[in-house]
Amino acid sequence: MNVLSLFDGMSCGQIALNRLGIDVENYYASEIDKYAIKVTQKNYPNTIQLGDIKNVKGEDLPNIDLLLAGSPCQGFSFAGKQLAFDDPRSALFFEFIRLLKEVKPKYFLLENVRMKKEYLDVITDLVGVEPILINSALVSAQNRLRYYWTNLPASHPEDKGILFKDILDEKATAPLSETLQNRFKLTYKDNGARLVIGTTALDGRIGQKDRVYGINNKMSTLTATDYKQPKQVYVGGLLRRLTPLECERLQNVPDHQTESVSNTQRYKMLGNGWTVDVICHILKGLLKKEVL
Quick check: is 247 catalytic? Predict the structure, then answer.
């Protein structure tokens, strides 16, 4: 089969197809981040990189069996300014629609964040199918709610019951400074959430960047901006940051898949990526289709 992946990133779609044992003749990837491309080419050297989506033309491609896309979401996210289609990054969604019409794939899958209903309705109308909202927590140790639009049969995966303690990096040896260790102990609080167990803020408030997470529940959503300050976790009596390996496991990515680039870039691309086992759950519908 021929696959076209838009905004391919580190190629989580290819990880999922490989995990399912689906043979791909040609995998075309549109991506502009050089670090994500480096990781993809290291792990999948036969990937055909097409560059900027704006330069990808359906007429230049063979028949496409599967179109994948996780268009930039910054303009839609409740965590952002919600500029929606006025944000040039989220406006790239229309490039997906253009190529959906141009290549006319047999099957497609589009992923995006939770958003206001007015934006959701626009996307749904243009794509032509209703989305399904799936929480990655069902198949990983991460809470990550995402919408998926697809013409494959879509359902919620079974809950595997994975907690953060199940995916710990046992070799992590980089505790935070003694100052932060002591600050956490002095300001320890329980805000009612089983995951957020405290803070390193001087005033004791549990703000987003100062939160300390425990190991007996799900980790909060990884984001592309986590590279600025990876989340703080309390493990074995010590306070430390999430490691890149733990971020890989939170996204169901194979261990060490991203280690060919700096940790900064690993955090960034993993925060931008897909939870692989959610994609596997949806794409397993291909195994029942004549395309294979």
Answer: no
Residue 188 CB partners (closer than 8 Å, separation 6+): 197, 198
Residue whose entry in the numeric block shows the structure tokens 């099957």: 107
pLDDT for res 143: 95
Q: Which member of 12, 73, 247, 280 is catalytic?
A: 73
Q: What is the largest CA-CA distance in the chain?
A: 63
All CATH 3.90.120.10 domain ranges of the chain, comma separated, are 164-250
pLDDT in tens, 193-238: 668 888 999 888 888 889 999 999 899 999 999 999 999 999 988 9
Residues 6+ apart with CB under 8 A from 184: 198, 199, 200, 212, 232, 234, 239
**Fold classified for 164-250:** DNA Methylase; Chain A, domain 2 (3.90.120)
When pLDDT is averaged across residues 173-196 and rounded to a whole number, the result is 82
